[in-house]
Specification:
Number of domains: 3
Radius of gyration: 25 Å
Helix content: 25-40%
Bound molecules: 6-O-phosphono-alpha-D-glucopyranose
Distance between the termini: 30 Å
Strand content: 15-25%
Shape: globular
Structural class: alpha/beta
Largest sheet: 8 strands, antiparallel
């Protein structure tokens, strides 16, 4: 989720690179760096913070200003804090190979050990630096060119990458490659540009080459050659970008929120990457380290959070109790911090937060820490305060979330909780057979999310029929009760429609009085043990002339008898259902807000990160 820019041509590279970074800042903005060729050596600057900090650092670097050939990067941290040492580019031992990278090197620990054994010295906590050393190792031992060294190194890598590499020994050459992380090459007159997305290029040219997975390009000022990682030549077609700049920043979507909803298959894959080990059929969570032993023994977990993250906590309660058989409570952070909670010895307190900076969540965490709890963070922003203050944690790897209403971070919070619950369950009592069933099903979730997203147009048309109603209900049971709450919250946040989420059985203890002619009621009713019960609840709504939008399992035709509209989700084991049923909730809220003309990405009165009480 970081941004890459590269330039080979006759202009001053630094201007093009810095402008490109600014255009990519929405993809990552915690630190940045630039490197250009000058007089046979690689000259670079890196800074923590926004691109403006890097720009200031260039004021005293005339060599960088003079170069016509270079690479740059804006980072969204995945491994290691957002500081200067961890910013890209990274270098090999001799400082003669520079590399910028997007993606995650999943086997970096193994590769790092290989390089350490060969005597390499590391200067950062990143997975990327490993790749710079590995390329250097091959370059100085066996490879006949930079591109061959890159190929040899990439064959050892498992994970995802978009990279741009330069080398002081071959001063006119830029080598780029991709697998799983987007990379395009802009073809100008007398110049080439490289970028992780088109917004960094469009000012200079609309002619681009889209790199595919396992492809590499070798670029010089006068030529470009494309091959596969296995060195088979590939012919690439030049295509024209047809989008406007603003559209490009949003990946062609109308709003960041919609873009982030559609990114979910990709970010869930990234969040599972390297953690879900289908070969050995186990879960590996490096961020938990030695603490796993304490977690396995704990008698109580308390999950604390605010807003959408609190809903993820509620799903966590089901997961930890059901799959790991550990008594679990969920607390609003704002309540936990002030009610003098009892935290017994051995209690584990887990804070969930996209930003890692929410004031109440942080205060609850400090309260738990002072009372002697072991604290964990499930956080998106690497190096954020919560990530730093917890004893251990697991990052979401959801990439920057810009839309105020959280979507992809929520889904990744569920992914991480599921991974932790399965890891603990397996160590406590779960059979290998059950573990395998869940792990295989988890690996299929990204494709299943794609199947739900394919219904977006139909959902938009359906929602248009309901948006005039100012009061909605969302009903769910079991694992899907928190999803009903999340559905109602999403709708409130961005469309300003009043909505309430309920455990379906609670409806008849009061809220049923609200149901009137035509009131929209979203019923989350996938196949599970409470299916018949929720169908009963649907009948109760119908009897009072409410209109039903049902979320049901593919193939369930019976539900069409009771519901006015049905959105189907693929089947999966019950503990994984929230990962699928939340997607229609997000789409319903989004299309309702658009239909009502609301500012989806910046809803009134709301802030993305609430760092005050
Ligand atoms: C704000 C946002 C919500 C978010 C909550 C918690 O209220 O508008 O979307 O769920 O904060 O934020 P966090 O960064 O801790 O997940």
């Amino acid at each position: 989720m970081c941004g890459i820019v590269g330039y080979v041509g006759r202009k001053k590279a630094s201007g093009v690179l810095i402008e490109g970074l600014k255009r990519l800042e929405y993809r990552g903005y915690d630190s940045s760096g630039i490197c250009v060729q000058h007089g046979g050596s690689l000259v670079f600057r890196k800074r923590a913070g926004r691109i403006s900090a890097l720009e200031e650092a260039l004021a005293d670097a005339p060599e960088i200003a003079a170069g016509t050939f270079g690479i740059a990067h804006t980072r969204w941290a995945t491994h290691g804090e957002p500081n200067e040492a961890n910013a890209h580019p990274h270098f090999d031992d001799d400082g003669d190979i520079a590399l910028v990278h997007n993606g995650i090197i999943e086997n970096y620990a193994t590769l790092k050990q290989f390089c350490l054994d060969k005597g390499h010295v590391f200067h950062s906590d990143t997975d990327t630096e490993v790749l710079a050393h590995l390329i250097g190792e091959f370059y100085h031992d066996g490879a006949s060119s930079l591109e061959e060294a890159v190929q040899l190194a990439l064959r050892e890598v498992s994970g995802t990458y978009g990279i741009a590499v330069m080398c002081s020994g071959e001063p006119d050459k830029l080598v780029v490659a991709r697998k799983g992380s987007p990379l395009i090459i802009g073809v100008g007159s007398d110049e080439y540009l490289v970028a992780s997305d088109a917004s960094a290029i469009i000012e200079h040219t609309v002619n681009v080459i889209y790199m595919n997975d396992n492809e590499m390009a070798v670029i010089t000022p006068d030529s470009m050659r494309t091959v596969t990682i296995d060195n088979v030549p590939v012919t690439k077609e030049i295509q024209q970008i047809e989008w406007s700049l603003e559209q490009i920043a949003k990946g062609g979507f109308e709003h960041f929120m919609l873009k982030e909803i559609f990114e979910q298959p990709e970010v869930v894959r990234t969040s599972l990457g390297g953690r879900l080990d289908l070969r050995d059929m186990r879960v590996q969570l490096g961020g938990l380290g030695e603490i796993v032993r304490d977690l396995v023994k704990t008698h109580k977990i308390i999950l604390t959070a605010c807003g959408t993250a609190w809903h993820a906590g509620l799903v966590g309660e089901y997961l930890f109790e059901d799959l790991a058989r550990i008594p679990t409570e969920v607390e609003y952070a704002s309540e936990f911090r002030y009610r003098n909670p009892i935290v017994e010895e051995g209690t584990v307190v887990i804070a969930l937060s996209q930003s890692g900076e929410t004031a109440d969540t942080l205060a609850a965490l400090r309260e738990a820490h002072d009372k002697g709890a072991l604290t964990l963070g499930i956080v998106n922003v690497v190096g954020s305060t919560i990530a730093r203050e917890t004893d251990a944690g697991v990052y979401l790897h959801a990439g920057p979330e810009i839309g105020v209403a959280s979507t992809k971070a929520f889904t990744c919070q569920l992914v991480v909780e599921t991974l932790i619950a399965l890891m603990l369950g397996r160590r406590r009592f779960m059979s290998q057979q059950s573990t395998e069933r869940y792990l295989k099903a988890l690996a299929e979730i990204p494709d299943k999310i794609e199947r739900i997203l394919a219904q977006a147009d139909a959902i938009r048309e359906m929602v248009a029929d309901y948006v005039d109603h100012d009061n909605w209900l969302f009903l769910g049971r079991g694992y899907n009760y928190p999803i009903a709450l999340e559905g109602a919250l999403k709708l409130k946040e961005i469309s300003y429609i009043h909505a309430e989420g309920l455990p379906a059985a609670e409806m008849k203890h009061g809220p049923i009085a609200l149901i009137s002619d035509g009131m929209p009621v979203v019923c989350i009713a996938p196949r599970n043990a409470t299916y018949a019960k929720i169908v009963g609840n649907i009948e109760e709504v119908r009897a009072r002339k409410g209109r039903i939008i049902a979320i049901a399992t593919e193939g369930d035709e019976q539900i069409e008898k009771y519901a006015d509209n049905v959105i189907y989700v693929p089947d999966c084991p019950v503990p994984l259902q929230p990962l699928l049923t939340v997607i229609p909730m997000q789409l319903i809220a989004y299309y309702a807000a658009v239909a009502r003309g609301c500012n989806v990405d910046k809803p009134r009165n709301l802030a993305k990160s609430v760092t005050v009480e």
